[in-house]
Design brief:
mainly alpha, about 75% helix
Length: about 270
């Protein structure tokens, strides 16, 4: 019985890892080898795909652009969500539940419906094809999510902590930064993780609001067709490299995510 208990999740994990393994496997092959015989490991091991990505400005600049606006969006979203979440967790005001629900409806909306308004707005304001344009566009979806996550963590902090700090003579911002924020560090980590991941994988807005200077790697990967067809090996190498930032973020916030599941906000 114990063997069966371990066998099922092990097989499930192997099944989930197969596409990732196959992606990495193809990244070390040429396109001709990929289209040729079936093999679990490349016969002619090559690093040409990775060398091209790190030497061709079109490719490595895409990674720089993506990381730039993702970090900007994560910082803006979490910074804006912290005071909003505190207000929802500590105060009662007219229409608070309706405003909170309205925030979540923004997160539920598909990005496609905002692509044209954002395009016209940023074209008129001169923000088109900038990192800030994509970062601000993603805030429409990430700030509601961050507020929802952080509000759950803040509600778990006793109100007596606030009252004790005020009695001890702390100003609000001194209390908020030095005492309150460290007590919800797990929530900040979880919120930052989900903001990072959404902004990293989102393609439609990032592709619509950029053209050359701020074009992300995901948009670059969709334009690899040539007269000989798609460069599958190059696409696989680019896809493999896009997994690395997410893997690093997951590694550093893995304990926070587990706590988020325990609190019911993830």
């Amino acid at each position: 019985m114990k063997r069966i208990t371990w066998l099922v999740p092990t097989l499930y994990i192997i099944f989930l890892m197969l596409p990732i393994y196959w992606l990495i496997n193809m990244s070390f092959k040429t396109t001709n080898e990929i289209l040729g015989t079936f093999s679990l490991w490349p016969h002619n091991f090559t690093l040409d795909n990775y060398i091209k990505i790190f030497t061709d400005r079109t490719w490595y600049q895409g990674y720089i652009n993506s990381i730039s606006y993702v970090i900007m969006n994560t910082a803006i979203s979490v910074t804006a969500a912290l005071p909003a979440a505190y207000a929802f967790s500590r105060y009662k005001f007219l229409g608070d539940k309706h405003v909170f629900f309205w925030l979540l409806t923004n997160r539920m909306a598909p990005p496609a419906i905002f692509a044209l308004p954002f395009f016209q707005l940023y074209s008129a304001s001169g923000l088109f094809d900038t990192h800030l344009a994509v970062a601000l566009a993603h805030c429409l979806f990430n700030i509601p999510l961050a507020v929802w996550i952080l509000e759950g963590f803040m509600s778990g902090v006793p109100r007596e902590l606030d009252e004790t700090a005020y009695v001890d003579g702390y100003s609000f911002w001194r209390f908020f930064i030095k005492i309150f924020l460290p007590s919800i560090a797990a929530g900040i980590g979880v919120a930052a993780f989900f903001c990072f991941m959404f902004s990293w994988v989102e393609l439609l807005l990032a592709k619509t609001l950029t053209s050359v200077d701020a074009k992300p790697i995901a948009a670059t990967m969709t334009r690899t067709a040539s007269t000989a067809g798609y460069e599958l090996g190059l696409l696989s190498a680019a896809g493999t490299l896009t997994l690395i930032p997410g893997a690093f973020v997951i590694y550093f916030v893995r304990n926070y995510i587990a706590k988020g599941f325990a609190l019911g906000r993830v």
